[in-house]
Amino acid sequence: MHELSQLKVYKFGGASVKDAAAIRNLGRIVAEHGRPGPLVVVVSAMGKTTNALEALLQLAHTGQPYATELGALSSFHAAVATELGLPAAELLRELLGELESRLVAAANVAPSGLDQHYDQVVSFGELLATRIVAAFLRARWLDCRPLIRTDETWREGRLDWSATEAALQAALPLAELTQGPPVVTQGFIGGTAGGLTTTLGREGSDFTAAILAYCLGAESVTIWKDVAGLLNADPKIFPDTVRYPEISYQETIEMAYYGASVIHPKTIKPLAVRGIPLLVKSFLAPTAEGTRIHDCRHGLLVPALIRKTDQCLVSFESKELDFISEENLEVIFGVLAQVRLKIRLMQNSAISFSVCLDFLPDRLEQLLARLRGQFTIHYNTGLELYTIKNYDTASLQRLTAGRELLLEQRTRQTFQFVCRAG
Ligand code: ASP
Ligand code: MG
């Protein structure tokens, strides 16, 4: 590992590069706060581009025409580049051509092969965005795919830390970072040893920033967002949010685990291991304090209110009207892991076992197919899971008032419940 250096890692998400004005603002932040000193800038796809690419892939895969949608995506990026005074055609032609051939390749593949094609297609959001941002900043554009090494778990690539660390240190020696221009690279994507592209899971660019900081021994990571810092709730859901000026790694990991949408759950651990502080700041008010996530002790925190939508509740009963035994649980857990469904909450009663899961119809179908023989299975969809971390009476009353709780669980710090959406 490099000695802990002056290196800063900045991460800009989709909202902070959504149009030419946003990229100009990014440029000001880099000039005024990031430089001088070595800087690596991690950029996500512009605005809602990742969703647009998902939709394009779906069209291509199902053999429907997609020229209009592809044209819209291309001209959107070209227009932004042009507005920034960049030679759009020259800058983007090659990438757009590659994207088109990836879409052609995705037509008519078997559903089991679709995830692999997903990564080859959806990764272009970050590739295009970084081309534009790097050119605008006159920075070095770095293709991270040969460096961020993952296995072949498509859409959720698992990182090979030692290969990644060695590759990043070789590609980005500190002396070069110190003397040269800033480096601009993609969030969210990586590559396999065989040279195929992978993605790290939706919203994974935060994790990329942490990987870079960990492997290069950065002094800090800053995530630039459209909110004032780490808040106790999503302001789109709860109007009266409070910012935490500082918070420990541990608390943040727990909040991310419960589904707080502020920071990708995998981001914190690598930073905590190497003691690298994570700053969350507003790109709209770059001089404001934001939140410092680091190794700190604090008193009781304002309760965090977290909502996860699109949940389902699945309950298993043994067919013989037997108790749910450890042997039964072993089978259920095994299949959940195989189909990659994560348990958000679980509860056991005499003859049934219930789990709250993200509602992913394909995976749920696989689960049912494998377990129906052995269990009677019921499930409800269209549910929400609420978590109050560091709850108090007021926050508890506020969230539960007027709702029918289908499942609830309480520990000393945390109260969780599942209810119908709305
Ligand atoms: N562009 C990707 C997504 O929208 C990754 C990210 O934004 O962090 O999921
Ligand atoms: Mg995004």
TrEMBL record:
Recorded catalytic activity of this chain's protein: L-aspartate + ATP = 4-phospho-L-aspartate + ADP
E.C. designation(s): 2.7.2.4
Pathway entry: Amino-acid biosynthesis; L-lysine biosynthesis via DAP pathway; (S)-tetrahydrodipicolinate from L-aspartate: step 1/4; Amino-acid biosynthesis; L-methionine biosynthesis via de novo pathway; L-homoserine from L-aspartate: step 1/3; Amino-acid biosynthesis; L-threonine biosynthesis; L-threonine from L-aspartate: step 1/5
Span of the signal peptide: none
GO CC terms in record: cytosol
Boundaries of every Aspartate/glutamate/uridylate kinase domain copy: 7-281
UniProt keyword annotations, A-Z: Amino-acid biosynthesis, ATP-binding, Kinase, Nucleotide-binding, Transferase
Pfam families in alphabetical order: AA_kinase (PF00696)
GO MF entry, a single one: ATP binding
BP-aspect Gene Ontology terms: homoserine biosynthetic process; lysine biosynthetic process via diaminopimelate; threonine biosynthetic process
Similarity remark: Belongs to the aspartokinase family.
The protein, known as: Aspartokinase
Taxonomic source organism: Hymenobacter actinosclerus
